[in-house]
Amino acid sequence: MKKELLVLLDYWEKNKGVSKEFLISSLEQGLSAVYRKKAFLKENVKVKIDPETGDIYFVDEKGKHVESPSFPWERIAAQTAKQILIQKIREAEKAAIYNEFKKIENHILSGRVERFETGNIVVSLGKAEALLPQKHLLPYDRYHIGDSVKGLILEVRRPNKGIYPIIMSRTATDFVRRLLVDEIPEIRDELVEIKAIARFPGDLTKVAVYSSDPRIDPVGTCIGDRAGRIKNIMKEIGGEKIEIMKWDPDPEKFTANALLPAKCERVVFDRAKNEATVWVAKDQLFVAIGKKGQNVRLSCKLTGWNIIVNRAEGEGPATVLLGISEELANRLKESGYETIKALSKADSAEISLSTGIPEEEARELIERAAQHIKDTQPNGIENSSENNK
After folding, report:
1. Is the pLDDT at 388 greater than 50, yes or no?
2. What topology does CATH give the domain 174-247?
3. Confidence label for 111 from pLDDT (cuts 50, 70 and 90)
4. Is the per-residue pLDDT at 309 higher than 80?
């Protein structure tokens, strides 16, 4: 038993990475518990194992050897040792896998489709299995057993019976972020920075990039020669469209960039409401809003502003559209009536008092503002915001 025990301990240490000291300590604790139960071993007596010879003996609290209990303890020791070793080795293997994969959480790994469980995919990662839930699959993902699959290690949890500790995802926003990092050396080397990213999995992803080096075009760098880099990433995510735009510290410029490919004429912020009202030409309205509102909704996520898209005719600032003078436009702006929407809801007496124009003229201005909104936004179709998902 002694020789077999030592050979077994050496094997698990060399081949499974479970330390001999850990296994011996576990055996000592387990055997002590068994002898207290089976042979009524005193509480102050413990089992000790010599790591060099494999000898098993009993010691008191002072470390002195004591007589072994009158019990077939060698047979019990062999049976117990086997059970404890199997249990501890399994625990150690699970802990090793957890520690290994926890380090690469939020990174991308490739695996092989092992089997299907109620619509979910079990992916073999070599040492471990991961679960790729159905809700984390892209709309056009189709896999068969044995297929290669790439995904983000979304979460690594402590091992628990019946629960897969490793969860993969192909729909997470960070999946695209990591694909960009892996594909584009300039991002990996921090010459280009991803400032913001927003995604509708399977349809569209918007990415805002920036470089502090004036010699580097961050957008062109990410797209690559003949769009080669971005095409490689789009291919990995089933043809999902990726739009790259330049991040700008100026919120007005960044908001306009976020709405690309639409061309914005003007952006006005209401910081109290966290709103950005954007005016675009009539032919740019659908482009700005996008199919199913995706463009403006992703732009909201990207910028953090609740973006409202309005139609303009291209004549200039909102107050100029009403045909008023630049001087009056400035006075209205100073009084807090910069937008047509604000004018349409104003009180004629307050405008007269703050700008010095006759109240009748103020009333007419309010009516023109209300009519302009009615004419340019029939049935409210041409307004869009993040709240209209």
Report:
1. no
2. GMP Synthetase; Chain A, domain 3 (3.30.300)
3. very high
4. yes
**Which helix (DSSP H) or strand (DSSP E) does residue 132 occupy?**
strand 129-132
Domain 108-171 has CATH 2.40.50.140: yes
Which pLDDT tens digit goes with each residue over 113-123? 999 999 899 99
Q: Which helix (H) or strand (E) holds 355?
A: helix 348-355
Q: What is the pLDDT of residue 386?
A: 37
Q: Which residues pair with 121 in a beta bridge?
A: 116, 132
CATH number listed for the domain at residues 261-389? 3.30.300.20
Q: Which residue has the tokens 């993902």?
A: 141
- The count of C-alpha atoms lying within 13 angstroms of the C-alpha of 251, restricted to the half-sphere facing its C-beta, is 16
Pick the CATH number of 2-101 from 3.40.50.11540, 3.40.20.10, 3.30.1480.10, 3.40.50.300: 3.30.1480.10
For residues 35 and 47, give the distance between their C-alpha atoms in angstroms, rounded to a whole number. 9
Highest mean pLDDT among 140-149, 289-298, 346-355: 140-149
CB neighbour burial string for 126-141, b if at least 16 within 10 angstroms, e if fewer: eebbbbbbeebbbeeb
**Full-model pTM:** 0.67
